[in-house]
Every structure is written in C-alpha cells, then in structure tokens.
Amino acid sequence: MEVIVSDSAQESARLAADAISALYRDEPAAVLGVATGSSPVEVYAELGRRVETGELTMAGGQAFMLDEYVGLPADHPQRYRNVIDRDFSARVDLPADRVHGPDGMASDVVAACAAYEDQIRAAGGVDLQILGIGTDGHIAFNEPGSSLASRTRIKTLTPQTRADNARFFDDDVDAVPRHCLTQGVGTIMDAKHIVLLANGKAKAEAVHHVVEGPVTAMWPGSVLQFHPHVTVFVDHAAASRLQLASYYVQTAQDKPDWQGF
C-alpha cells in the first residue's frame, strides 16, 4: 500500500488522473471501476479536462459502478446511475452504454447480483478501481461486519452511512434508502490496481484503520492491506491520525514516479 499525502483534494485528483491516464495510454480497452460520493468528483473533472484537450481518450474502454441504491426510481437525481452519468460519463468520451451498474430495480435481486459478477468477469475484470472510504471504514457499501470474501449482493445501510449520505437528500435522512446493491469486498479485491481517495478531518479515523490498523471486518477497508497494488491519496487533514504521516509526506516528495510501484 502506497500512501501519498497531498496539499489538497485537487492535487490528489490530479495524481489519480495521472494513474488512469497512464492506464489508458498502455491499455486503450482498459476497464475502470467508478465510485460515487464526493471523493472522486474532482478526478472525473480532471479526466474530462484531459479528454476535452485531447490528452486522453477512454473511448475504447469500459467502466463498472461499485453500487446502487435499491428502489430509487429511474429519474431520481441521487440514483447512482444518474450520478455517474452526470459526474463521469458526461465528461469523458467513454460510450454511455459501456458504463455498467447493478440493477437496483431488479425484481430478482439475487439473480441481478450474480449477473453483475458475471458481467465483470466477462469484461476481463477491473484494471483500476477508484474507491472512497466511509467514516465507518466501509468501501463501496460494504458496511462494518461485512465478509471480507463477499461478492456483489444486497446490503442494509447502517444509520451512520445514511446520516452521512443525507446531505445528498436535502439533509433528510428518512429519504435515504435503507438498502443497496454493492460489489463485495472480494469483488473489489479482484481489481488489479486500487486507488483510494479521502479528504478532510472526518475521514482521518477511517484512514488510520485502513492503512495502519489490524485487518478486521469491523473496518472493511482494512482488507486493502492484503492487496498487491493499492495507492491511497489523502490530504493532510485525512492523514492527521496516521502514525507514519511524516514518512508518507516525504514519500510523496521523493518518489514522484509512484505509478510504477
């Protein structure tokens, strides 16, 4: 796990976009894993800028979403398909029909989740997965206590997650769905390269557990310590609980070719 402490969320986003740009230069048909939430928005904006200026093309690739709320109607602005269409697909040149997501309106949820796993495998797996981290350490919607070998499935959201996400629903926690479909921890761990972004003091405790804590289902993101290629981008506030924060800052300064690790 390589940890890069940046001066700002924008700098982290630029570095993450560098990794994605390098991937598509080497593999024009690469498969990207995309996440919702506030953490990756700056990354998508930077990718869009590069596509617009001709520095990057993603036209030959595919993308897979991490998760989706259950039961939100197709036109709901916070349905994750609509969020990804707005924040990611509309900015880049990857065809919209090559951006895939789990079906939160499926009548047979178990079958829909199994089909999504098959679709990811048929694409050759995810080359680079973008992740955020919840304040309780969840990755995707794998809440504390999730099996570290889990696959795509339905999950019940914790009160903490629903409270955190209420800001996207006019601060009305009752409007936040109680269930979601999510890639499992095991599904996420199959990605060849994982890029995790976290910014702000509210994420500091989770970042500490993910990077330096014991591996435990109570902090699901901690399993990333077992992955062979993880890059964590954090600002100084999110890094404030890291015991080795000063080393990570030095690493960022001394090793600008971190993409090759």
Q: Could you characterize the architecture of this molecule?
A:
The chain has 261 residues and is an alpha/beta fold. The protein has a single domain (2-254), classed as 3-Layer(aba) Sandwich (Rossmann fold), CATH 3.40.50. The chain has helices at 9-26, 41-53, 80-89, 109-122, 159-165, 185-189, 204-212, 245-254, and strands at 2-6, 31-34, 62-65, 67-69, 99-100, 128-131, 153-156, 179-182, 193-198, 230-235. Strand 2 (31-34), helix 2 (41-53) and strand 3 (62-65) form a beta-alpha-beta unit. The chain is globular, with a radius of gyration of 17 Å. Pathway: Amino-sugar metabolism; N-acetylneuraminate degradation; D-fructose 6-phosphate from N-acetylneuraminate: step 5/5. Residues 8-225 form the Glucosamine/galactosamine-6-phosphate isomerase domain.
Which helices and strands appear, and what pairs or packs with what?
Layout: E1 2-6, H1 9-26, E2 31-34, H2 41-53, E3 62-65, E4 67-69, H3 80-89, E5 99-100, H4 109-122, E6 128-131, E7 153-156, H5 159-165, E8 179-182, H6 185-189, E9 193-198, H7 204-212, E10 230-235, H8 245-254
Parallel strand pairs: 1-10, 2-3, 2-6, 3-5, 6-9, 9-10
Antiparallel strand pairs: 4-8, 7-8
Helix pairs in contact: 1-2
Catalytic activity: alpha-D-glucosamine 6-phosphate + H2O = beta-D-fructose 6-phosphate + NH4(+)
Function: Catalyzes the reversible isomerization-deamination of glucosamine 6-phosphate (GlcN6P) to form fructose 6-phosphate (Fru6P) and ammonium ion.
Family: Belongs to the glucosamine/galactosamine-6-phosphate isomerase family. NagB subfamily.
